[in-house]
């Protein structure tokens, strides 16, 4: 869940821009530092301007800067689809100019493609772009991979996929080769592209520099139409694993390959930040949410085609629409400010979990993301204490333990992790999950022992 | 004035005693734990002779004030009876004199003593007032309290507060629950109709204190010169012990509630020392027909005998999470008792099955037994948690001595049982994964991981237990991933040892 605020001086600021009669891109920098202009309207309720669009250099697609990540659709308590809510979100998104929808066969317990299609099919097919992926994680035989590819067409009720990705390049060049090259899948997909059933072919990336260089070196042969990378102001220079986003983006820019951005908000880690980081960002722009900084950062780079956000709630969608309608790019000073913020954030020992749930379901029933997120929450709120003589020990202990039982049922807590390591290869953020879980279990055990 | 004092004291003690069974955080017991410890039978069993002596002296001085002010079951009956009296004015005057049923009283008392001495304390405890109250409070009232708490916790969670936390409400044992329901129903009916019938026919404490209170120093006495034979006092006497025709009071049944004193418009009844006696009093009368109370208890024991089996509560699972099978309790050859119990024999000879430890156990380890010979007496099992090292709650609250107080340090060296590995269930063998969760969490380092194929360095590791170091805390059993039965479980020790 992303804790975006509802306030929106971005609007007021943009109204201001309109009055100044200048292009947003040119003046955004100037405006961002200005105090909002009182216009009598309720902040956040004024109509946003036009959504910023980016052009795909090869196809000429006009893609909305805000892309809809379909990995975090609202689900009901019992794990079934809340299609009505999905429809409302999609309708609102399309109405405000969002036209890029990024799904995958494995998202939302395998329901995302169908949910997304059910909502999209109520709109003309030429009013949006669909992106989906080859998620051949467990069985990458050609038969199985092709089956998965064809199944996507069926689920999406379409005869062409606008953007098709090799899902989550991760685990080294050997694995890349066996998943996509040796089994002939890339050749197959290139033929499909020629046949027009795939309009753009790319890949999403979560690996080391060596593998990135290798996959990009195939550009001459494959011609990647786009590449999906993780980019945000923390990963720009301080990634938790793998090459920094500055390198990834630079390499793509060099080759003129448009970048699709994932994890602009790190699964909410750039909206739920420690108090003094929030105060720092709010101090600069009191009316804008903490999250809006992250979205403006990702959108500032001209080679970015679209920025994906997995918006579960209407409020988040509305806020992101405001941030990008139109985008007010960051200037050099603001970029430096965010870089400084990133170094400050790095000092907090949070675990880089983005709640993507790729590790789930754990065969032994552990609720991995909830455990890690609760830990992060307590880190950010200053509720981690190891020494009973700390003045805040009792408060921190209670907050951790009571909150832990609320966040995770007892039988799914970290002390039940047996360390089978089945989750380790699944994590795109390269978190050593069992190690972290055992560490948290030890921490909790000590809290319980020391009243 | 006397009545008011009695009411205030009784209300305070009743609320405090009820809170003992409701408070799951264990924080109140430090302040109010003494209330359980001054109960008559628990004090006798704990060989707390100071307390027993005090209670006897109290009764010798003032009559059965114990029954009116200290016994929570007695106060509960007063409340029920009072509520009935409030429904209509007529109902307040629904009582009348009846003869004492002494053969029944003394037979029940004798049976109680014989059963307790013969090691069937758990059966005898069925009619023991304090533990009967405990079973009613913990089985019928505690769930309501917990649900209320959980609602508050739900609101607190929404408000981002940690002031309340929720606690699982689970069905701890059918037999004990049934006993509590039957006891409560019987007590309710008796109290609703005739006030203190239970106390003056069944209750062993009532019989004992009744025998003492006949000789008490202070007594309510009817002044025959002032009395106009209106009968108001007798019609308000919930103990039915005022013989209005003969102006006599049966002091073996009078619970010193002082209702009669206020009832008399002529001021003819007064509570005064024996040397200032004016009116006449009476000794006990004789038996009458058996009443519903005894029948109810006969029925209850019949139900108890037929009931069995603990049922684990269904656990909530989310769709995105692997389903976790319910854990089933292994059948243990020797039941597990908490540290401080010393031995099975010691435990069963002292436990009145009041459920106070069960209510207070924060790790949901204790639950009433369903075995006939130890019926309703608590035992440990590890489906919902394990007996954590920092906790000595049960030994702190236990009023009657089956669990003697132990410190955290002592507990860490008391062997209540030992772990046994069932290799066929171990996930290392069934799933071919590495695990070692039992060894990882063993607080006494009693579990070592050894090669599943001796000498083969590539084989996965399986647990082996050093029983000399094992204290039977159940961490391994609770945290074992094998389901429904753990691959490692704890067998109890008949006699607890110290490492």
Keywords:
heterodimer, A: alpha/beta, TIM Barrel, eight-stranded parallel beta barrel, two-stranded antiparallel sheet, 11% strand, B: 499 residues, mainly alpha, Alpha-Beta Plaits, 2 domains, 10 strands
Describe the overall structure.
The complex is a heterodimer of chains A (451) and B (499). Chain A has 451 residues and is an alpha/beta fold. Chain A contains 18 helices and ten strands. In chain A, α3 (83-95) links the parallel β3 (66-69) and β4. Chain A is globular and about 70 Å long. Chain B has a two-stranded antiparallel sheet. Chain B has two domains: 2-125 and 189-304, no CATH class; 318-498, Alpha-Beta Plaits, CATH 3.30.70.20. Chain B has 24 helices and ten strands. Chain B is elongated, with a radius of gyration of 27 Å. Chain B is mainly alpha-helical and 499 residues long. Chains A and B meet through α17 and α18 of A and α23 of B.
Q: What's the short story on this structure?
A:
The complex is a heterodimer of chains A (451) and B (499). Chain A is α/β, with parallel strands linked by helices and 451 residues long.
Ordered list of secondary-structure elements with their pairings:
The complex is a heterodimer of chains A (451) and B (499).
Chain A: H1 9-20, H2 24-32, E1 53-55, E2 62-64, E3 66-69, H3 83-95, E4 100-102, H4 107-110, H5 112-120, E5 129-134, H6 142-156, E6 161-169, H7 173-181, H8 185-194, E7 198-205, H9 209-217, H10 219-222, E8 226-230, H11 245-255, E9 259-262, H12 275-284, H13 290-300, E10 304-309, H14 314-323, H15 332-345, H16 368-380, H17 393-407, H18 433-449
Chain B: H1 2-22, H2 29-32, H3 34-37, H4 40-45, H5 49-62, H6 65-70, H7 72-87, H8 89-92, H9 102-117, H10 121-124, H11 129-158, H12 174-194, H13 197-201, H14 204-213, E1 218-222, H15 232-235, E2 242-243, E3 248-249, H16 259-263, E4 269-273, H17 292-306, H18 344-350, H19 356-360, E5 366-368, E6 378-380, H20 393-397, H21 408-411, E7 414-421, H22 427-430, H23 437-441, E8 447-451, E9 461-465, H24 475-479, E10 488-498
Antiparallel strand pairs in B: 1-4, 2-3, 5-6, 7-10, 8-9
